[in-house]
């Protein structure tokens, strides 16, 4: 989700710096390895790509 900082003519540099530091805080990382290989699509990926690309010819 995107965040918005509203700036107008009365916004001081210190207020802007403070808002930017709040945005740059990193979130906790997610271990994506626990999801690897969990979804079964039922079709080989390479065969599917070749089938789709052959439709354009």
Order of helices and strands: HH
* Helix content class: 25-40%
Average pLDDT works out at 84
Instruction: Please count the helical segments.
Output: 2
**Class by alpha and beta content:** mainly alpha
Number of strands: 0
N- and C-termini, Cα separation: 39 Å
Which blocks of ≥5 consecutive residues have pLDDT under 50? none
Give structural attributes.
57 residues, mainly alpha
Describe the structure.
The protein has 57 residues and is mostly helical. It is built from two helices and no strands. The longest helix has 11 residues, at 13-23. The relative contact order is 0.08. The model has no long low-confidence stretch (mean pLDDT 84).
Please outline what is shown here.
37% of the residues lie in helices and 0% in strands. It has helices at 13-23, 45-54.
Topology (SSEs and partners):
Elements: H1 13-23, H2 45-54
């Amino acid at each position: 989700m995107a965040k918005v900082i509203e700036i107008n003519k009365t916004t001081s540099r210190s207020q802007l710096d403070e808002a930017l530091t709040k945005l740059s805080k990193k979130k906790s990382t997610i271990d994506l390895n626990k999801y690897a290989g969990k979804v079964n699509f039922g079709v080989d990926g390479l065969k599917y790509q070749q089938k789709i690309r052959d439709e354009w010819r």
